[in-house]
Amino acid sequence: MQTIIKNGKIIDGSGKAAFAADIGINDGKISEIGNLKKAKAKKIVDAAGKFVAPGFIDIQNHSDVYWAIFDSPQMQSLVSQGITTVLMGNCGASLAPLISRDALFSIQKWHDLAGVNLNWLTFGEYLAELSKRKFGTNLAGLVGYSTLRRGLIKDNVRPLKNEEIKILNKVLSKSMEQGAFGLSSGLSYAHEAIMAESELNSLAQTVKESGGLFSIHLRSESSELVESVSEALELVSKFGVNMKISHFKAREKDNWHLLPQALALIEAAYQKHGNIHFDVYPYDFVWQVLYTYLPKWSYEGGRNSILNNLKGETQRRKMLAYLASRNIDYSQIFIASTAHSLNVAGKTIGEIAARHGTTSEESLLDIIENGGSEVLVFEKNLDEKQVRELLAHPLGMVATDGAGFSTSTQGRLVHPRCFGSMPKFLHLALSENLMPVGKAVQKLTSIPAAKIGLQKRGQLKKGYFADICIFSADVKDAATRENPFRFSQGISYVFVNGEPEFENGNFSASSAGIVLKK
Ligand SMILES: [Zn+2]
What we know:
Elements: E1 3-10, E2 19-26, E3 29-34, E4 43-46, E5 51-54, E6 56-58, H1 68-71, H2 76-79, E7 83-88, H3 123-131, E8 138-141, E9 143-144, H4 145-153, H5 162-177, E10 182-186, H6 197-209, E11 213-217, H7 225-239, E12 242-245, H8 259-273, E13 276-280, E14 285-289, H9 296-299, H10 303-311, H11 313-325, E15 334-338, H12 349-356, H13 360-370, E16 375-380, H14 384-392, E17 396-398, H15 417-431, H16 437-444, H17 446-452, E18 468-476, E19 489-496, E20 499-503, E21 506-507
Helix pairs in contact: 5-6, 6-7, 7-8, 12-13, 15-16
The structure holds zinc ion.
The site of zinc ion has 5 residues, from loops.
């Protein structure tokens, strides 16, 4: 045998409690589970006192649009928290298919595109290019709706004509034939905010016909949370599409009271149709694009119209009035990164405003104006109790909504969820009695695997791929808002396709992650 993991407490991913057994690995797969005390292997890992679980599956991941799969393909921040497979292409943005080069503008809110060169157009060509490379985790991808749309109508912001909808549906189903696992949409972002209902309907139908997943970033997570959830659920009831709501939450204190109602709608839809889940990250602060604090009209034409509006005196005054009318303490917003270096990363808007002798609202506009295409911020606007409730909810999965970074990422801060989500959740389960650890692991493994439609992953079973995470009961995240580049404690081994990817704090150079196709 290639490898034996012995003496561990097996949590097989099905939701069952832990049991004692050894695991044998051969040819990248689990070849045996049982008593292997006498068996021989090239490599023996003693997991005495530790849990042995399937590798975690991050169903809401952005390693593509943050360019992490190219900049830091070992995906250290993910592997080190036990993640062995990621689903990318979420929130409406993916790196393929590219109907035209303009499609890529859908990602510029995350990554500066200067100097970027790509050698693919179709989803199939994209996967073929990725297959030539090595990654720390397995990669699966969705088609981003904004990527499709912008590829076709460029920077125009208008509802699509019937003919255009037809073209997009064709490209979408072709992409799914070529290996995409489904579609994502990001309805709150500038270029999708205007999408007509007929567009959503016909897309949902195409996803359903191809047996894919529809990952939806709700139109609103604040005052219109309930309406936005209803909009998503209508697609489930009309078309029976397999749906996942991304990073589900109610943001801003004034809207927290809406969450129970939204959740009740999801539960009722599940009772009736099944097929609806959501994912959550275990933190009470968000990582988001700064322009989304502005009034919708000011960014409906994309970045250019934001800049024009900021320059017009009347519009600027209207924007300030809008900011002032909302019950948000802008001074507490924390700048994570800007595309143009402004030396503001790691500071709150309040601190920056004080330095310039201006108000937080004015300062916010200045940072958008001068920060370039990509200004990302952290804001604590979630209710910690609600976050826990969603994490523990039977329809909730746990995901990073992050990307695979290394610790050498310079000059900017990333959300600590990129480094600590899974350990933080397991810590809540094991040390704060959130839920039994068997059930917690199920949320990280077999539930997302089934949701995505991954074959032979997400459980420890004979014949399944040997994606495995070994962790101890003292597992805990270490990354913080000010200091995000810190690996968690208590994750001792991570195997990807049978290869040790992470071993007692060290990353292997093997990078055994592969590209997965639907
Ligand atoms: Zn999103």
